[in-house]
Design a protein that fits this description.
Elements (H helix, E strand, L loop, with lengths): L7 H9 L4 H12 L3 H12 L6 H28 L10 H25 L12 H10 L4 H23 L4
Length: 169
């Protein structure tokens, strides 16, 4: 990759928009309980050549876990609930509220990523993106299951990185 690496939020927005990435991330989230922000952080670090350690993942999980559980997840639950009820939802009047909750949820995720971006404190550059991608994802909570769910996504991630960053992954 030429030039400075994009910040985690910009990287995540660009990569998430690449074909197949959002669907794979949401599958990992909804079927495996994966934290998409941790997943995108692990990918972002892989792109930079950083080989995560179990200790670094534990540090990140400890740093963001309370925020995710007390802020991000409740906002997500309210947003999703407003799609189907309770009365008077869903209707035209409550759709505006749902969109406001969605915006708050995105801001909460951005705050989580801002914290993740500072971790790990020391970076190592070791290896090829393709190898690091699977290795980093395997260390996340859910481990091999999260990596397995995202295996079909690896090519999409590499293609998305090409399109997003203009360089081979």
């Amino acid at each position: 990759m030429s030039g400075p690496a994009p910040d985690l939020w910009s990287f995540s927005l660009s990569l998430y928009a690449a074909p197949g990435v959002a669907a794979a991330c949401l599958t990992a989230q909804d079927s495996q309980g994966a934290d998409v922000n941790l997943l995108l952080w692990a990918v972002w670090l892989a792109v930079q050549g950083h080989d995560l350690t179990a200790e670094e993942v534990a540090e990140a999980e400890a740093a963001v876990g309370p925020w995710r559980e007390e802020v991000v997840w409740p906002l997500r639950a309210v947003r999703r609930r407003l799609k189907t009820g309770p009365r008077p939802a869903p209707d035209q009047d409550t759709e505006s509220l749902r969109m406001q909750v969605k915006a708050a949820e995105l801001e909460a995720e951005k705050a989580q990523q801002s914290l993740l971006q500072t971790l790990p404190r020391q970076r190592r550059t070791e290896g090829a993106v393709a190898d690091l991608l699977h290795a980093n994802l395997s260390l996340l909570p859910g481990g091999a299951v999260v990596a397995a769910v995202t295996i079909p996504l690896h090519a999409d991630l590499r293609d998305g990185l090409d399109a997003v960053l203009g360089s081979p992954a």
